[in-house]
Write a structure and sequence with these properties.
Blueprint: E1 4-7, E2 10-12, E3 18-24, E4 33-39, E5 46-51, E6 58-60, E7 68-73, E8 78-83, E9 92-100, E10 112-113, E11 117-121
Parallel strand pairs: 2-11
Antiparallel strand pairs: 1-3, 3-8, 4-5, 4-9, 5-6, 7-8, 9-10, 9-11
Length: 123
């Protein structure tokens, strides 16, 4: 019933940009921390970024800090991930995560997950 749906994935060249969007099906998600995780083939799911309920606070993994920006629009119940200066190592399936604990980089701190969207960075 509760859904998080990602969109915006695709193929981009190194150094390029891409914006991912996550749409929540339930208004209650506007009250909670939201986040993005990613999982590359053969690797564990890793934290990318999170944003508190109001959007006033953000938290980034060191690997993406300065390149990625997380934002939210609680009127639309959406969370975006703007990705700049993309590198091949950013290639992964990106997952939107909902109802999380702000400040935590653990996937276990988030209660809901989207289906994922593929981001491929390649020349």
């Amino acid at each position: 019933q509760v859904q998080l749906v990602e969109s915006g994935g695709g193929l981009v060249q190194p150094g390029g940009s891409l914006t991912l969007s996550c749409a929540a099906s339930e208004r209650s998600f506007a009250k909670y921390t939201m986040g993005w995780f990613r999982q590359a083939p053969g690797k564990e799911r890793e934290f990318v970024a999170s944003i508190n309920w109001s959007g006033a606070e953000t938290y980034y993994a060191d690997s993406v800090k300065g390149r990625f920006t997380i934002s939210r629009d609680n009127a639309k119940i959406t969370v975006d991930l703007q990705m700049n200066s993309l590198k091949p190592e950013d290639t992964a399936v990106y997952f939107c995560a909902g109802r999380g604990l702000f400040g935590s980089s653990s996937a276990g701190a988030f209660a809901y997950w989207g289906q994922g969207t593929q981001v491929t960075v390649s020349s």
